[in-house]
Predict the 3D structure of the following.
Amino acid sequence: MSTRQAEQPEVRSADLVIITGLSGSGKGTTLKALEDIGYYAVDNLPIGLIPKFSELIRDSPSARRAAIVVDIREGGSLKQFPALFRRIRKEISTRLIFLEADDETLMRRFSETRRPHPLGTELSVRGSILAEREQLAPIRKLADHIIDTAKFNVHELRDVIGANVVGARDEAQLRIDVTSFGYRHGVPPDSDLVFDVRFLPNPNYIPEFKNKTGRDPSVARYIRSFPQTVEFMDRITDLLLYLIPHYIREGKSYLTIGFGCTGGHHRSVMIAAEVCKRLARSGFKVKQTHRDINR
């Protein structure tokens, strides 16, 4: 054994997952998901106890997998976390999961639960979210996984966490969200791939279709009647079937594909629905959403 090899720390087979991120982003759901698959779970463990806790996990003959939550509730002690995290992962296999969501989603969640933000009531909820983002920025840079939870319900988030932690990467576990939208209302900020279908003939200018949507069979037939529609769907399907396996190999757990037209009522809805069907037939787990269909 060379001197360099002798100086490398031994990483034991025990596994520690640290969950952190913005308040309201789903840390509790994530912790529960890990507990359900066999992780010993601890919420809000004080920063000063993490080194001792990691030693117990490392040396325990039974509790070899554990998950803890560390977040803004630690207050000023949170500044110690980056250095502590770097030290711990030299001694035990440690992964850091950072959860986040856009401001509007977080504000809606706080409104629905009627819970105060952990930073208190001196700032508005939006102000507290911005302050929390700033304080957590150094920790976010260390994360092994950064997960935007805005697009997931509780069950979908649990699936994503399972895929990230267990490490399985196949077509059935990559979650694909195909979304239609209207450019009039802005491009969805969480889109990984965006396709503009405004080049297709617009049913909105036909009186009998104006108040219908792309879900209506008559509207769908009209859009599909043009050769450029069929060619576009075939080409897009081929492109996605080529790209998705590459995303899987790179470790991606979820993929959001957006199709946009002017208002988000007709063309984008029909195309998104058709692409969903084609991907599902190819064995992928696909969710279909239409953001602006009722606007």
About this structure: Residues 1-12, 168-172 have pLDDT under 50 and may be disordered. Residues 119 and 131 are 9 Å apart (CA to CA).
